[in-house]
Amino acid sequence: MNDGGMNDGLRLESVRRAFRQGKDTLEVLCGADLDIRAGEIVALVGPSGAGKSTLLHIAGLLEKPDAGEVRLAGQAAGGLSERERTRLRRLHLGFVYQYHHLLPEFSAVENVILPQMIAGTARSKARDRAMDLLGRMGLAERAGHRPGQLSGGEQQRVAICRALANAPRVLLADEPTGNLDPHTADGVFLELVALVKGSGVAALIATHNPELASRMDRVVRLQDGLLV
Ligand SMILES: Nc1ncnc2c1ncn2[C@@H]1O[C@H](COP(=O)(O)OP(=O)(O)OP(=O)(O)O)[C@@H](O)[C@H]1O
Ligand SMILES: [Mg+2]
Fold first, then answer.
1. Are residues 169 and 73 in contact, defined by beta-carbon separation less than 8 angstroms?
2. Cα–Cα distance between 84 and 77 in angstroms, integer?
3. How many helices, marked H, and strands, marked E, lie in the chain?
4. Which residue has the CA at smallest separation from atom 26 of ligand 1?
């Protein structure tokens, strides 16, 4: 099925999401529309509580919208079973969180190899790709270190490599440098942008930093439940 028009990146159509709080309903997303094409990097901004994480979780098929559609790599997620959603996520999505979530008992390179092996890639091929990604992030010398032996910025660089390991169509990042000091954050961020630009992935990156946001191809703002 490929009814997502020409877009093989990410598309959100009239996405709605509300949370019930006792008697009240908090409407977080009220018909959000978004189209991100392959090779395009979009910044997602908006005040705390605007719904950026909610939107990213829905775009990443981790949560379902109350209404509306998410299309990933041209495929609509709405009608899919849980199993099919998982498959779509594995095939086409990379996710970077604010905190890296690396596996502490594995080295950097192993953390980037593992998702590839889960996807069925042979170990030697997975290792080559992992080393290539880590090298491009300036981590060739650190590949054998475990997360606990890396700095915060290095850990987040590894997490970015891991998210791109399976060459996803779509990369989602939720304040990927929010945990780092401003100087380190800038460096990691610029490397992320450079790596994404070269990879042809459609990227949506939530950030509170307007200066970093302005370096992306486009900025979308979450305001009153809509993307403007
Ligand atoms: N599972 C949930 N149940 C109830 N309310 C929720 C739930 N998840 C999020 N919310 C509410 O939805 C709103 C949006 O939350 P969200 O985490 O998406 O904001 P955000 O833009 O990512 O904020 P921040 O910049 O602080 O990370 C908030 O008011 C939050 O309290
Ligand atoms: Mg958030």
1. yes
2. 8
3. 7, 10
4. 48
In angstroms, the CA 191 to CA 157 distance is: 8
User: What's the token pair of residue 21?
Assistant: 């709080």
Residues 6+ apart with CB under 8 A from 81: none
Ligand 1 neighbours, Cβ below 6 Å, are 19, 26, 28, 46, 48-54
pTM: 0.93
CA distance 161 to 192: 9
Q: What is the pLDDT of residues 169-214, one digit of tens each?
A: 999 999 999 888 888 888 888 889 888 888 899 999 999 888 889 9
Measured by CA distance, the residue closest to atom 16 of ligand 1 is 51
CA–CA distance, 9 with 92 (Å, rounded to integer): 9
Write down the pLDDT at residue 2: 44
Per-residue model confidence (pLDDT) at position 216: 92
- pLDDT of 190 reads 87
| Neighbour count for residue 119 (Cβ, 10 Å) | 13
- Per the listing, tokens 């606990």 go with 148
CA atoms of 40 and 127, how far apart (whole Å)? 27
Rounded to whole angstroms, the Cα distance separating 215 from 218 reads 8
